[in-house]
Design a protein that fits this description.
With about 170 residues, the protein is an all-alpha fold. It contains 7 helices and no strands. The radius of gyration is 17 Å and the shape is globular. The model has no long low-confidence stretch (mean pLDDT about 90).
Length: about 170
């Protein structure tokens, strides 16, 4: 794909995410269910990640450097943590899937801890190799949690869990 095509796809995807956020916001306002709030908290960083990626494509500048150097990973991890929180509440894992609940809670805290360490290393040191290690570790953990979730969903054969797993894939 050409760069302009990728940029257009990014804007279309971010527009779809924005419509989904607005729809979920209305549902949250009407029902006050926590699941909708957590889904919005997941979808907003994802929207900004896609939108900023499309906006900064083929541009240089201070915001592009900030986005590519720090903000993209921050948005990815923040969105992933909120997706785990959303999934736990939506599927009621505390009662229905206790092992998955423990894995998701541990992953949430571990990712937030790694993000804090990454932030400190990024802004307070010049240790690029350690920063790169933490960045890659977080990405592999998010990928691993997604794979665990997909496997668990197809083992449980619960319809809602399978829908979320397909969405995660």
């Amino acid at each position: 794909l050409k760069s302009d095509d990728l940029k257009t796809m990014g804007f279309v995807l971010s527009g779809m995410l924005l419509m989904l956020i607005l729809f979920t916001l209305v549902n949250y306002a009407l029902t006050r269910k926590k699941e909708f709030f957590y889904y919005i908290a997941y979808a907003l960083p994802t929207f900004f990640l896609v939108f900023f990626y499309a906006s900064t494509r083929n541009y240089s500048g201070s915001f592009t450097c900030f986005f590519n150097g720090y903000l993209d990973l921050f948005l990815l991890i923040t969105g992933s943590v909120y997706y785990l929180v959303f999934s736990r509440h939506f599927l009621n894992t505390r009662i229905k899937h206790k092992r998955l609940d423990k894995i998701f809670k541990a992953a949430e805290w571990f990712l937030l801890g790694l993000l804090l360490v990454f932030t400190l290393v990024h802004y307070l040191t010049g240790w690029y190799l350690i920063e790169s290690f933490f960045e890659n570790a977080m990405k592999f953990i998010v990928l691993g949690i997604g794979i665990i979730f997909i496997i668990a969903a197809f083992k449980q054969k619960e319809r809602l869990m399978i829908y979320l797993a397909i969405g995660s894939a």
